[in-house]
Automatic annotation (TrEMBL):
Family: Belongs to the PET191 family.
Coiled coil: none
Keywords per UniProt: Disulfide bond
Protein name: Cytochrome c oxidase assembly factor 5
Matching InterPro entries: Cyt_c_oxidase_assmbl_Pet191 (IPR018793)
UniProt keyword annotation of Disulfide bond present: yes
């Protein structure tokens, strides 16, 4: 994993570990990350989207040359 997205990944795992999906239902992180908003908090959904955009930016050659967009 690239260093630029590692911090986001760790924050996402921390957020998911505090959600009811992992705590109460004892489901794996990967399964909970795919859930829609009612199961996980809006903060986790935002982190998931940001992490996805970070990973996509590493694969997209145009973004690699130009750099990540400022959001």
């Amino acid at each position: 994993m690239a260093k630029s997205c590692k911090g986001l990944a760790m924050e996402l795992v921390k957020c998911l570990s505090e959600s009811d999906c992992v705590k109460v239902e004892n489901r794996p992180y990967r399964e909970c990350a795919k859930e829609k908003s009612p199961k996980i908090s809006s903060e986790c959904v935002g982190l998931r989207e940001t992490y996805f955009n970070c990973k996509r930016g590493q694969v997209d050659m145009r973004a690699r040359i130009r750099g990540n967009k400022g959001y």
